[in-house]
Amino acid sequence: MRIDILTILPRLLDGPFADSILERAQQRGLCEIHLHNIRDYSTDKHKGVDDYQFGGGAGMVMMIQPIADCIDTLRGQRNYDEVIYLTPDGSRLGQHMCNELSLKANLILVCGHYKGIDQRLRDHYVTREISIGDYVLSGGELAAAVLTDSIVRLIPGVMNDETSALTDSFQDDLLAPPVYTRPADYKGWKVPEVLTSGNARRIEEWRMEQAILKTQERRPDLLSNT
User: Fold this and answer.
1) Same domain, 120 and 191
2) Sheet holding 128-131, edge to edge
3) How many of the other CB atoms lie within 10 Å of CB of 94?
4) pLDDT tens track for 52-107
5) Residue 88 sits in the same domain as residue 48
6) Does 216 share its domain with 136?
7) Do 7 and 88 have their domain in common?
8) Same domain, 175 and 97
């Protein structure tokens, strides 16, 4: 998979992609992540990328030309499955969407700033708009990092134990059950006996029961999806 991220703050994304799972995915050749500075495509002599909005009002708008030229350049080099704009008014990111996107080959992520990007980009270039939650960030970079991490970890070979991702919360519209590790007894706080029984069937039944109970308590809305 290849992910191209369009941003005016590329250094903000250096850290998230330089460690842990995302770093290993790139080192193993399972994923390429490329950052593109939108200012490099500006035809303005001062490399400006924003301007006042037509009709007046507070806040600046990211101009169409630099972003469109960057996307056109990338599309001239390869085909892209999606051009994704990270925006608070996009479709809410969920695990099923992450699963779907992890099967794609090439993605472009556009990080907005200020009051957002010129609507004509959304009308003629963007193929999908995604929100990571009902709140507003200073820019789309952190949302792009969240989206990238949630997708890349699902690519076969990225995680050392590929079955681990299949038991994460939301994969089956349930929250994950409680997990424990050694020691089995700490200050009198003991691990549930079933987990040390060695009975695989009982353990799976217990985990399912706990997942359902936890979901009923914390996210009953998820159960309507099952």
Assistant:
1) no
2) 32-37, 2-7, 106-111, 82-92, 128-131
3) 15
4) 999 999 999 999 999 999 999 999 999 999 999 999 999 999 999 999 999 999 99
5) yes
6) no
7) yes
8) no
Q: CB of 11 within 8 A of CB of 5?
A: no
- Indicate whether 166 pLDDT > 80: no
Nearest to 129 by CA among 151, 144, 113, 114: 144
Which amino acid is present at 24? R
- Which residue range(s) make up the domain with 106? 2-152
What's the CATH number where 40 sits? 3.40.1280.10
Distance of CA 45 to the CA centre of its chain: 34
Do 140 and 177 belong together in one domain?
A: no
Q: Residue 4 and residue 148: Cα distance in Å, rounded?
A: 10
Q: Is 218 exposed, middle or buried (0-12, 13-18, 19+ CB in 10 A)?
A: exposed
